[in-house]
Amino acid sequence: MEIYKEMEDKNVLIGEQVIDHTAKGDSLRLKLGRDVDLKGKTEVLEERRGDRYSYYKIKVTLENFGSEDREVVVRHYKWRGKILESSVSPITETADYVEFKVTVGPGEKEEIIFEYEVNY
Length: 120
Fold this sequence. Notes:
Helices cover about 0% and strands about 60% of the residues. It is mainly beta. The strands form 3 sheets. It has a 4-stranded antiparallel beta sheet, with no helix packed on it.
């Protein structure tokens, strides 16, 4: 795993780590922004609040700086919200969060755009 830091609009290698073994089928969790070969960014594109509800339109961008495909599971906490629309079908949706799975090829960017509403 290589760890990069964005400095002056460039990605600079700041460290490397090795994971010797993970059991087949196990998931490895890394926080975005600190991942190796991956960069993730979450943006709120639109937000509205009304009497007893809130609406959000979110964009998650994933970028792969590595040389291999990376399968990424994105979890977004939505606090009792309900998904209204999304560019990628969720793999899991609970009352508190939604998860999406995308594969990001080497040197590629993938985006997930979704909308949800929270009723109070």
